Amino acid sequence: MATKKKPVARELLFGDLWEFDPAPETAPAGIADRYGLFINGEFVAPKSKKWFDAISPRDEKKISEIALANAADVDAAYVAAAKAFPAWSKLPGAERGKYLYRLARLLQDRAREFAVAETLDGGKPIREARDFDVPMAAAHFFYHAGWADKLEYAAPGRDLKALGVVGQVIPWNFPLLMLAWKLAPALALGNTVVLKPAECTSITALKFAELIRDAGLPPGVVNIVTGAGDTGAAVVRHKTAAKIAFTGSTGVGKWIQRELAGTGKRLTLELGGKGANIVFEDAAIDQAVEGIINGIFFNQGHVCCAGSRLLVQESIESEVMRKLKLRMKTLRTGDPLDKNTDIGAINSKRQLERITEMVDAGVSEGAEIFQTDCELPKKGFYFAPTLLGGVTQSHRVVKEEIFGPVLSVLTFRTPDEAVEKANNTAYGLSAGVWTDKGSKYLAIASQLKAGVVWGNSFNKFDPTSPFGGFKESGFGREGGRQGLLEYGELC
Ligand code: NDP
Questions:
Q1: CA-CA distance, 13 to 160, in Å (whole number)?
Q2: Cα 473 from Cα 469, distance rounded (Å)
Q3: What does each C-alpha distance from 167 to 236, 277, 354, 396, 484 come to in angstroms?
């Protein structure tokens, strides 16, 4: 690193003052040229005879070819899972726990490789895949391994029995982590699984299938079927499923709920969000600015609990906005495989188009736009970090989930107004409160209709902590004892 100019102010201007050498990640991703479906403990060619391309959003290059599962393939996966269920569910919890520990350790052994594959396939910065997604996925397996032989403490005085075969459909924003959130509690309790990753991010799930094989998990306990929405619909509709667990858009979540009505299948939905990040005038402003940045730009804003609505007290608006813009200018947007990168590639062309359309709509409705002038790569899908000011509660960009690196900014004068505005949304997944006063945090948090409310922090996760929403953000919890109980029948 070489100093270019002398510091001019005590402000965060590293972006102007320092030049970073590129720091490309060089570890191999270990991605196969082609992946079949993982059914009954082995990779098999799809009955559909169809395959689709896995394209990296980093540079639009094909990185693999993936099997497309049709209804017959999904049926074969359910048959395998149903066959594996009696033995797996009867296994002593301590034995199931050993398999989960083994999966966690195998993932740790190949952590770097999985991180590179996740970045190549999904576009997230290698720093995040390496330091968050992969370790957190391993942590979920460790945590649930710990529960497997202590289930009597999860529901004291009651018997907790596995449900049967569980169908799980996961999204593209945290492919490996969402797999861990879904698989670990289901397996700990003795369920068997048919899991469908998102079409555009199937690679780490298929690499995880290799770990399942290496861990010696009995065939059929976990089956992974790949494909798009039709494959997901076949997973949801299959008569064998005792429960469906879905994470994704509210629209598809509502469809699934309609589809399952009257079938007796259990359902948990983790859907979208439009989290309010509320900053009071007594907050530590610099700390809050970091929290705002993390709240919206983590994983390019492809986060269901992102703090995508900033609510800032009017008296500190100009200071917060000035500091926020300065901090945004230091964000490095570009090649996700570069270890310096803060904001990587947008997950897909379709998502980039959706973000662009939403931001254009915001501007045409009168929003004042601020974007950093970072140079974006020519190939691949990228969007500059964006602030939308001058907006009101009725603007689309304030109401609808954008799922990109775009922050809408609103102001408030009193705590009551902050609560009113924060709750004025169809969603109810997350919120953040920034204040110097503990009592104020507790008073505000208790009035917010959100599944998780962070205090002087944002986007903090832990396997022991339940996560889930209210209203159109879904129902059911994932993580912690509460998430575990979603996979069992209390007798
Ligand atoms: P979807 O809800 O379509 O995708 C989520 C998962 O559901 C994917 O595996 C998808 O498959 C699958 N799926 C799609 N249609 C069906 C169906 N009819 N039955 C069963 N499964 C189905 O989300 P999108 O990818 O379209 O993203 C749209 C918006 O959703 C985003 O802009 C964002 O606002 C929100 N979103 C929220 C997420 C969250 O974590 N809450 C995660 C992802 C998106 P496939 O992708 O292969 O088509």
A1: 56
A2: 5
A3: 6, 34, 28, 34, 16
Compute and round to an integer the Cα radius of gyration of the chain: 23
Q: What is the DSSP letter of 405?
A: S
Q: What is the pLDDT along the chain (491 residues), one digit of tens a residue?
A: 444 544 444 555 555 566 678 899 999 999 999 999 999 999 999 999 999 999 999 999 999 999 999 999 999 999 999 999 999 999 999 999 999 999 999 999 999 999 999 999 999 999 999 999 999 999 999 999 999 999 999 999 999 999 999 999 999 999 999 999 999 999 999 999 999 999 999 999 999 999 999 999 999 999 999 999 999 999 999 999 999 999 999 999 999 999 999 999 999 999 999 999 999 999 999 999 999 999 999 999 999 999 999 999 999 999 999 999 999 998 999 999 999 999 999 999 999 999 999 999 999 999 999 998 888 999 999 999 999 999 999 999 999 999 999 999 999 999 999 999 999 999 999 999 999 999 999 999 999 999 999 999 999 999 999 999 999 999 999 999 999 999 999 99
Using CB distances shorter than 6 Å, the residues near ligand 1 are 169-173, 196, 198-199, 228-229, 232-233, 236, 247-249, 252, 255, 270-272, 304, 354, 401, 403
Is residue 488 within 8 Å of 477, Cβ to Cβ? no
How many angstroms separate the CA atoms of 293 and 299, rounded? 11
**C-alpha closest to that of 387 among 375, 404, 364, 400:** 404
The Cα 474–Cα 471 span in angstroms is 6
Distance CA 39, CA 231 (A): 14
Geometric angle at alpha carbon 94, from 89 and 100, rounded to 5° = 80
Residues 6+ apart with CB under 8 A from 462: 139, 479
**Which residue has its alpha carbon closest to ligand 1 atom 4?**
248
DSSP H helical ranges for 298-333: 317-329
Task: For residue 357, indicate whether it is catalytic.
Answer: no
The one-letter amino acid at 149: D
Catalytic residue among 304, 374, 401, 472: 304
Residue nearest to atom 40 of ligand 1 (CA): 304
E-state strands within 83-220: 160-162, 165-169, 192-196
